[in-house]
Amino acid sequence: MAINYTILSFPHLMLAIKQSDRKAFDELYGRTWKSLYKQAVNKLNNEDLAKDIIQDIFIDLWTKRESSNIDHIEHYLSRAVKFKVIDQFRKKDFHLKEIEEFVDILEDSEYADSKLLDNELRDIISTLADRLPQKRREIFKLKFEQELSTKEISDLLNISPKTVQNQTLNSISILKNIFQKILFIFFILFFGS
């Protein structure tokens, strides 16, 4: 007789998962991933990173299924998201400190021409902004190149100010992630052996 996983309680799902029941694991994932994802996105403001975190949590859960003794899986998963988010902020702070130090070195360099660096930086940001989806790109350029206010952009594009703010924050988050990767690569190339 086939088991109807949709009616199993969380404790029963966990018992089945401990016995390597993949269908029970899939049911647990299906029931909980959306709320966990929302929790992560609300804290990180980065959809891709939130997906990665949730994926990592479930991979860890499956990997350690036989040895884990989890009484309240919903609380466990929610706490796991919280701790993974904290880890991301720690990593982010670490990388930001490295980047800030690198920028300080460049600025202090006798060879650095600040006007040239500013122009280069603007060109890089503009090129990266061109990779954004059309609506985000348009809002980003109005905000940072034409220096329009949120209200002006909202009126011009006939969208809510909240949408302008959300799109701007999402754009900044995406560009910051890309820019950090580029700076890291540049740092390795510039200072590597």
From TrEMBL:
Tagged with keyword Transcription regulation: yes
Annotated protein name in UniProt: Sigma-70 family RNA polymerase sigma factor
Keyword Transcription regulation among UniProt keywords: yes
GO terms under biological process: DNA-templated transcription initiation
Coiled coil: none
PANTHER family: RNA POLYMERASE ECF-TYPE SIGMA FACTO, RNA POLYMERASE SIGMA-70 FACTOR ECF SUBFAMILY
Domain (RNA polymerase sigma-70 region) ranges: 34-93
Domain RNA polymerase sigma factor 70 region 4 type stretches: 123-167
A GO MF label: DNA binding
Stored NCBIfam families: sigma70-ECF (TIGR02937)
Alphabetical keyword list: Sigma factor, Transcription, Transcription regulation
Family: Belongs to the sigma-70 factor family. ECF subfamily.
Protein's organism: Sphingobacterium alkalisoli
Gene3D superfamilies from the UniProt entry: 1.10.1740.10, Winged helix-like DNA-binding domain superfamily/Winged helix DNA-binding domain
InterPro entries in the record: RNA_pol_sigma-70-like (IPR039425), RNA_pol_sigma-70_dom (IPR014284), RNA_pol_sigma70_r2 (IPR007627), RNA_pol_sigma70_r4_t2 (IPR013249), RNA_pol_sigma_r2 (IPR013325), RNA_pol_sigma_r3/r4-like (IPR013324), WH-like_DNA-bd_sf (IPR036388)
